């Protein structure tokens, strides 16, 4: 028996006992009086913006203006117009100049300001992370108080990839200098449809 096999056998013989998963009483987790207000407060505290809109079509003019400006814009929301399917086949090099992306979210979480997006909603996994300005759209009915409630409604294994995105990308070094847009979108605006 070589050293590798000895180590693996030793690990296999010294496994901890299996313990039951804890049962979380969802009815005892945080509840907010105004879920949207909490979502807005948290999102804005982490550098994002949010706005209530009456209808998704309000964003159609903004999208048209963005595309008319000559900027590279990707639309992944069918209600706003034609979906930019060509983005699905673009490499990181080709998407490098992506200025804005419009993506519909599945669920939003008030406790941390995050929005869940399935891979199919992104068109391309790179889009929400490589764009300069991320526009997410979520229905107000899809706002929940906590991640516990979000995971009850999500099927995380439904697709090969998905992500919670909370505001623009940010990082802080040991000197406590916060940098927004360090490794992803410089801005994130979430439009909540009433």
UniProtKB/TrEMBL annotation:
SUPFAM superfamilies: NagB/RpiA/CoA transferase-like (SSF100950)
Record-linked Gene3D superfamilies: NagB/RpiA/CoA transferase-like
LUD domain sequence ranges: 101-193
InterPro entries listed in its UniProt record: FTHF_cligase-like_sf, LUD_dom, NagB/RpiA_transferase-like
Protein name: Lactate utilization protein C
The organism of origin for this protein: Flavobacterium branchiicola
């Amino acid at each position: 028996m070589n050293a590798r096999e000895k180590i693996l056998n030793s690990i296999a013989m010294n496994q901890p006992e299996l313990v039951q998963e804890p049962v979380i009483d969802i009815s005892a987790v945080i509840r907010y009086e105004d879920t949207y207000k909490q979502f807005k407060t948290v999102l804005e505290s982490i550098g994002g913006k949010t706005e209530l809109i009456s209808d998704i079509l309000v964003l159609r003019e903004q999208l048209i203006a963005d595309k008319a400006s000559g900027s590279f814009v990707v639309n992944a929301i069918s209600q706003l117009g034609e979906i930019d399917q060509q983005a699905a086949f673009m490499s990181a090099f080709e998407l490098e100049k992506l200025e804005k992306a419009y993506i519909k979210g599945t669920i939003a979480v008030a406790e941390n300001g995050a929005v869940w997006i399935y891979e199919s909603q992104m068109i391309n996994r790179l889009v929400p992370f490589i764009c300069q300005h991320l526009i997410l759209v979520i229905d107000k009915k899809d706002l929940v108080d906590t991640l516990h409630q979000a995971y009850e409604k999500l099927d995380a294994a439904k697709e090969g990839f998905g992500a919670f995105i909370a505001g623009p990308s940010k990082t802080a070094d040991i000197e406590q200098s916060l940098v927004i847009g360090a490794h992803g979108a410089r801005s994130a605006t979430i439009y909540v449809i009433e």
